[in-house]
Design goal:
By secondary structure, the protein is an alpha/beta fold. The chain has helices spanning about 10-15, 25-45, 75-85, 110-120, 125-130, 130-150, 165-180, 185, 205-210, 230-245, 290-305, 340-355, 420-455, 485-495, 500-520, 535; strands at about 155-160, 195, 220, 250-255, 255, 260-265, 275-280, 280-285, 290, 315, 360-365, 380, 460-465, 475-480. Strands 1, 2, 3, 4, 7, 10, 11 and 12 form an eight-stranded mixed β-sheet that branches.
Length: about 550
């Protein structure tokens, strides 16, 4: 028998209970809190000694391909239980046994910022749609401009859809500076080259392709053993391009990879030579950091030799490495936080590479990595706010927007809808942690990495692969008994006749990884206690 029809107004009253109340209502406010609390209780029940919620299983995606939208409504309680169930198998990134990529535990205030944005739904393309969420973005931009060394009165920036978004903004701004803003309307009418280090993030491929440059115009420069761009190869490549009258739209350098923390030399590239130079200050695989200072110097030298009509745009992909700037005013001699000597050296060497960040014309900063905020919270920051006008659209194309108010980033942003969550979460952490809090968090990560490296260096079977990189990521390789790790690794890289041994060593490391992973997934793991070795005990500073 079919259900008795109900007037839509009856159903509407039911649906109203599915939304937060727009005015203060203790009963409905309590219902909302109770619902969220019930969700948290259900998820908490999934926690265990293993670094996942509940049990991981093999998803059968094909079984879901024929699903159709349900006809009838469902209760809030039913959906809340369903949402908790969808958390099953999710990795708990803050768990000691979870060591995957650079995915941080978000702070409570940054989570609260996302809740605030979810509740009140700001769209920060316009202050009329975002109120003080827009103010939060302006405040965060000013703080970070000051941290980098930009003039906050002249700098400008927007939070966007991840590190790829910051890189896309950087290359797009480079193209518009090169063409005087004509590419926005006339498009790209010639080939422009993008030069990147081999250790830079693969998003460079996305950016070149999606901007219409084409991935064929992306030139990869070899990286050194320290996961930074080879200045020798970079100079040779640029000279070859200039001699053939090619225009280089961007050079992508790395300021902190997530695998080996390679950092390109930023200060070695800067003046007005190529169309744009993009440096990476912290990749997400090896934490490689390009030598920004060295690349800036190279750009200066080449600018004197090749009469290029346009100043190059220097973009730093610093999504991982930017927080190390908080150590700019740390007293490394007094060392008030008591870091060990190896840690101090690592922090100071990284800072030396990150410090020239102010030489860049624009840069990218992620808070959902080393900023301890939820996904997605990424800032594109430009040294000259006026440059952003090159990305602007004609306001006449949007007659119903921007008729009042004083903050109109939607005139130049790629996004026509932009959440305020990332900006508010970033501001929350900047104010919560301050420089001191970030120093503690980053210093602890590096201290643990240095402790791990010291232990690995003491093993006859281990080879640390990124010992010249100073971030929190440690790459290492293990070898069977009787194999010299240094000699074997060298032959693996250089001797084609060593291929069979290379394959065996790869399989050996895979078995160790699988066994370690299985142990972690069972919730087994030991607490890491610093050894009482002479090298670490001597590292503590002398107290007055």
């Amino acid at each position: 028998m079919p259900p008795t029809p109900q007037h839509y107004s009856v159903l509407l009253d039911t649906l109203k209970t599915c939304f937060p109340t727009p005015v203060s209502n203790p009963i409905m406010d309590g219902y909302f809190v109770h619902t969220v609390s019930g969700f948290l209780d259900r998820v908490d029940a999934l926690k265990s000694a293993a670094p996942v919620l509940g049990q991981q299983g093999e998803a059968d995606y094909a079984a879901h391909c024929d699903l159709v939208m349900p006809e009838d409504m469902t209760s809030v309680e039913t959906i809340t239980a369903l949402l908790a169930d969808y958390c099953r198998g999710m990795t708990v990134w803050a768990h000691p046994n979870a060591q995957a990529n650079v995915i941080p535990p978000p702070t409570i205030p940054s989570i609260t910022a996302f809740i605030a944005a979810a509740l009140y739904n700001p769209n920060i393309i316009w202050d009329e749609y975002s109120a003080r969420f827009a103010e939060a973005e302006i405040e965060a931009v000013a703080m970070l401009a000051n941290l980098v060394g930009y003039d906050p009165a002249q700098a400008g920036g927007v939070f966007t859809f991840g590190g790829t978004g910051t890189l896309l903004y950087g290359v797009k701004l480079a193209l518009e500076r090169l063409t005087g803003g004509r590419a926005m309307t006339a498009g790209i009418r010639r080939d422009y080259k993008v030069v990147a280090s081999g250790a830079s993030h693969y998003s460079r491929l996305n950016v070149a392709a999606w901007l219409g440059l084409g991935s064929d115009n992306l030139i990869t420069i070899p990286s050194t053993a320290q996961n930074e761009i080879s200045l020798t190869h970079l100079e040779a490549t640029l000279r070859d391009l200039y001699q053939r009258d090619e225009t280089v739209a961007a050079i992508i350098l790395t300021l902190g990879t997530t695998d080996a923390f390679g950092i390109d030399d930023l200060a070695a590239v800067a003046d007005e030579t190529v169309a744009a130079i993009i440096l990476t200050l912290g990749t997400t695989d090896a934490f490689g950091i390009d030598d920004l200072a060295a690349v800036a110097a190279l750009r200066d030298r080449l600018a004197a030799e090749y009469p290029l009509p346009f100043a190059p745009h220097l973009h730093a992909d610093a999504v991982i490495g930017w927080p190390w700037l908080v150590f700019q005013d740390y007293d490394f001699d007094l060392n008030p936080l008591g870091f060990h000597a190896r840690t101090l050296r690592a922090l100071q060497d990284t800072l030396d590479r990150i410090r020239p960040l102010h030489l860049a014309d624009s840069l990218g900063m992620d808070f959902h990595k080393t900023g301890y905020a939820p996904y997605v919270s990424s800032l594109f920051l430009a040294k000259r706010r006026a440059d952003l006008a090159l990305l602007s659209r004609d306001p006449a194309a949007m007659p119903y927007l921007y008729q009042f108010g004083r903050y109109h980033p939607g005139l130049f942003t790629l996004e026509c809808s932009r959440s305020g969550a990332g900006a508010l979460a970033a501001l929350a952490n900047l104010k919560l942690l301050g420089k001191q809090g970030y120093r503690v968090m980053l210093g602890h990560s590096v201290e643990m990495a240095e402790l791990l490296r010291e232990r690995l260096e003491a093993l006859a079977c281990a080879r640390v692969l990124n010992d010249a990189n100073f971030g929190p990521v440690t790459l290492f390789r293990l070898y069977p008994e009787g194999v010299d790790p240094a000699a074997a690794f060298h032959r693996e890289l250089t001797d084609p006749g060593y291929r069979a041994e290379l394959d065996r060593h790869n399989a050996y490391n895979r078995r160790i990884f699988d066994a370690t992973h299985a142990r972690a997934m069972r919730g087994e793991g030991g607490r890491c206690v610093p050894p009482r070795s002479p090298s670490w005990s001597r590292a503590w500073p002398t107290r007055p």
